Give the backbone structure.
Amino acid sequence: MLIKNHLAELVKRAITNAQTAGALPAFALPAVFVERPQKKEWGDFSTSLALKLAKDAKRAPLQIAQTLAAHMPPDAAVAQVTTSAPGFVNFILSEAWLAQQVETILAAGERFGDLENPAPQNIQVEYVSVNPTGPMHVGSGRNGALGDTLANILVAAGHRVQREFYINDNGSQVRHLGESVFARYAQALGADEKFPADGYQGAYVTDIGKRLAAQYGDQYLRAPRAQAIRDLGGSAMEIIRAQIEQTLARMGIRFDQWFSERSLHDGGAFAQVLAILKRKGLVFEKDDAVWFAAQALGEEKDAVLIRSPKVITNPDERPTYLASDVAYVWNKLAVRKFDRAIYVWGADHHGDVPRVLAAARALGLDPTRATILLYQFVTLKRGGELVKMSKRTGEFVTLDELIGEVGPDAVRFMLIAQSANTTMDFDLDLAVKQSDENPVYYVQYAHARIASILKKAAETGARAAAGDVALLTHPAELELIRAMLRLPEMIDLAATKLEPHHLPHYAIELAGIFHAFYKQCRVVSSDPADAELTRARLKLVAAAKQTLARTLRLMGVAAPESM
């Protein structure tokens, strides 16, 4: 149990004790929230409950707080309970209890920080889902880092999580890719084929055309043109999808399922949801198109589900993105029955959010089961100047190039270091700097320093196993323990708010507190008189190493033993 929840239970018991003693009148027990106080001098935790009880208790908040403090049951974790105006009850944790938590952390091993969840959910997190029509860019990398870290956090919070990549393999982009690749394929074979005006530009299309020419020879020059475009487009899309998978693997991102958009149409899912909407009177025809009556559900505008055959002649291209989104949310929540579905989308899709949630509502689904997280885009900077183009190709900088330049750890850490709803500048110079200015280096160096301490101690015969944590009484030691105990709180906060950026902030803070401890407290002493303290401090730094490594791994970042 989180320590703040444990303290909340003590507050509830204090209310019951005070009511039994007649010090407080009878009233229903309210929800109790214990948080870290705004002022450090108030203690480790605090609750403002007395302010909310003033009306029911018919007393001044400070008087209620004092009554609660007087009736607080004794507890090994609490050294002192104080009050402060206008009505706060404050808790100071016991130093002996804090020291003992080192043993608790070590006993938890790599799972330290995991939450006991009495009601775990089946949650699907769908992220990246970039169109497989070209190399991934940096913005898609932010999507991947956010989604994958969030999935890790939700698992640590006790949920069952499925990670999914939604492949946009249906519609006009497939045809455009096929036409582009066919042109480059034909040109690679010496044919005089004009490149389509709306085709996909880029060296990667030329490379794929050459690859397919080598694989198939002139087979598709002799085939019907429509078939050649369809088949080569499908081959190209699979090549690109495999490249996307390899790029994401470099960042440690893998999926439980790659879900095909086309399967929603070929498998009848869209036909099923369309029939449901029709029965509910939420579909109408206008201008030869089929519309979703979103205004009937309070939305600002109706939306097209199936385009008019006068505008789009190809039946495969007539369903809109919204048509697939409606079928997809049904598939997630009604067919596969996930308790929650979390989407990670770029901010340019903000207009689609209300329509997808309205569609879920129209299908009889609880829209609160679907959460769509929007992230802002990333700009690359070097020397304070904006970087737009790849040095190699003269086109946009790909995610592969960014990983190659700064490494996967820097990419993952820095892409989640800011709240998803803020535009971020990715400083390429900072990402490779080996100094405290670089947050990735700073945190990883702290882990490597601890590993070095433990290694050198082992070489001298000093071991942590027999350490007595009761000897850990120095303020810097206790501050480090307090910081380590915040990891479960960070996991709880990040999982509740779906905000991965809390983890890198915590990692930086924990590394800083460890560095401060290291300056103030000599860990390994050659003085035989300090042997017991050395063993206790080795146990402390082993717990710090474990906590820092867990935090890094939750972010998908390596915890190096040396640097």
About this structure: The longest strand covers residues 160-167. The chain has a mean pLDDT of 94. The chain has five domains: 3-93, 99-116+436-554, 123-168+258-375, 172-253, 378-432. DSSP finds 21 helices and 14 strands in the chain.
